[in-house]
Amino acid sequence: MNRRDFMVAGAAGLAAFGGFWLTQRGGDDLPALALNAEEAAATDTSGIMEMQIGAADAPIMMTEYASFTCPHCATFHQNVFKQLKAEYIDTGKVLFTYRDVYFDRPGLWASLVARCDPNRFFGIAGMLFDGQKDWVGGGDGAAIAENLRKLGRVAGLDNDKLESCLTDSDKAQELYAWFQKNADADQIDSTPSLLIDGEKFSNMSYPDLKAILDKKLEG
Hints:
alpha+beta; Glutaredoxin; five-stranded mixed beta sheet; 10 helices; 53% helix
C-alpha cells in the first residue's frame, strides 16, 4: 500500500469510527477503532508485546511494518519473508520484529487472533497472509469475523480463548494506540515498510533485501 492509500485509509478509519464499541450485530460484535492523536498518546501501551523471531544477539535488527489486510504485505510474506526466515532469521543473522499497521477493522481483528497465543503468533500470521483472499472474501464484516474464528480454530486456539481475544476491546484500544505511536515515531507512510538497523526502506524484492543484509554482515 502506497503513501496516499495509507493516509486515506487512516483518515477513513478515524472518520468512520468515533471510538471502541461492541454490539451484537454480526461482525459488529468485534471491536471497532479509532483513537485520535491525544487519546492514543494518553493510552498505556506498556502491556503490548513485541512479536519477534530470531536470535536475541543477531548482528542485524529488522522490523517490518505491515497489515494483515494489505495485499502487498501478503506478497512480501510469500515472496520475501519465507526466504528471509530460512537464510537469515533461522541462522541467527537477523532478529526480526513484526509491527502491526491498522487500516481497518478486519486488520485489527486479525491481529487479535494472531496475538491470542504469543507462541503461535508467527504461525498464525503466516496463515493470515497465505489465506488473505479467502478470509477477507467480499469484505462483509460478519463473514470476515467468522472466517477469522475458523482460522483461529485451525491454528489450535480453543473457542473460549479465541472469543475472549476477539472481543477484547481494551486490548484493541491499546493495540491501535501502540500502532499510532510506532508509526509516528518511525515515520511509517506505506506498507510493508522495513527498518534495518534503524534505517527505513520501502517494499523490495528478496534479491535487493539480500544485498543489503549481506553488505551489513560483511561490514
